[in-house]
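Q: Convert this sequence to structure tokens.
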Amino acid sequence: MFLHVKDVSKYYNGKPILRDVTFTVQAGESVGLIGTSGSGKSTLSRCILGLESIDDGEIRFRDLSWHSASHEERRSMRKNIQAVFQDSSESFNPRWTLADSILEPLRHFQMIEPSEESTKLAHLLDVVQLPHACMASYPRELSGGQKQRAAIARSLSLNPQLVVFDEATTALDTLTQHHIVEMLQSYRHDQSKAFLFISHDLSVVSKLCDRILVLSEGTIVDAFRTDELFGDARHPYTTALRDAFVEKGRLLHGLD
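A:
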């Protein structure tokens, strides 16, 4: 398996934020983690990415853990676990062109020769459907949707084994969000990668994921395959999220 989260707990000032969280993500799988604000989603994301420590339990990625990994193993984990966050604006250096921002991870890990950069950059822009003219632009010159596509291109540049999307479409307008989701759908069954989509939006997760985990007050209260979303045996919290999702769809389509 790519990712194994086992009995993970996290406390802030003695207050439990995550409690005995356990799940796995297999190669070639897209898993959604959904919950409302304050459920612990982003804290869990930061723990998986090695940006925060855990108080109890274990997080393993391909038999490595942040807690016990050597310097070289941590470097390998950082290369193979990439992330796309909600606000891509803060992840770009305003003094760098888009080309430099996207190529920076490849340069940092010494995975590209200068002679290969133009070809690689053009390929990445094609993957996320950005015009090549954007490569000379600065972040301030791009729309929110363009910056998010660029953030996705950067996350894919290293050919990582696991990509964590933490509310990656939340800040986008509905149309741009739809286009980003359509683009990401083509990666759902890439057997060389695994994806973890963290969101409060069930409509996004249900389109992109094979399985869905539901987090409430720091605990996973439900887990099911996406095609089981409308089954009768769902947790009451899942049912509430599902009803809100259905109502949102009705309103968007002008239904009574």
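Helices lie at 41-48, 71-80, 98-108, 117-127, 144-156, 174-185, 202-208, 236-252.
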